[in-house]
C-alpha cells in the first residue's frame, strides 16, 4: 500500500481467528517493522463463550 507522496505504509490490516473454532472475530492493525512475525493475542470469542488464543490469518 502506498500513501500519496510515495511513502509505503508500515501499518497493515490483519484479521485474527480463534484457534478453537476457527472463526474470524477481530480486525486490527500491526506495524510490520516492529512485528514481522504473526500476531497472537488472547481475546474473547463470542462463539466459544470464553477467552481463547487468536492468531493472525492471511
TrEMBL record:
Q: Which UniProt keywords apply?
A: Ribonucleoprotein, Ribosomal protein
Q: Name one GO cellular component term.
A: ribosome
**BP-aspect Gene Ontology terms:** translation
Q: Which GO terms describe its molecular function?
A: structural constituent of ribosome
* Entry keyword annotation includes Ribonucleoprotein: yes
Signal sequence span per UniProt? none
Q: Which Pfam families match?
A: Ribosomal_L33 (PF00471)
Which PANTHER family does this one have?
50S RIBOSOMAL PROTEIN L33, CHLOROPLASTIC, LARGE RIBOSOMAL SUBUNIT PROTEIN BL33C
- NCBIfam families in UniProt: PRK00504.1 (NF001764), PRK00595.1 (NF001860), rpmG_bact (TIGR01023)
Return the similarity comment: Belongs to the bacterial ribosomal protein bL33 family.
Q: What name does this protein carry?
A: Large ribosomal subunit protein bL33
Task: State the organism of origin.
Answer: Clostridium luticellarii
Higher taxonomy: Bacteria, Bacillati, Bacillota, Clostridia, Eubacteriales
Q: Which gene encodes it?
A: rpmG2
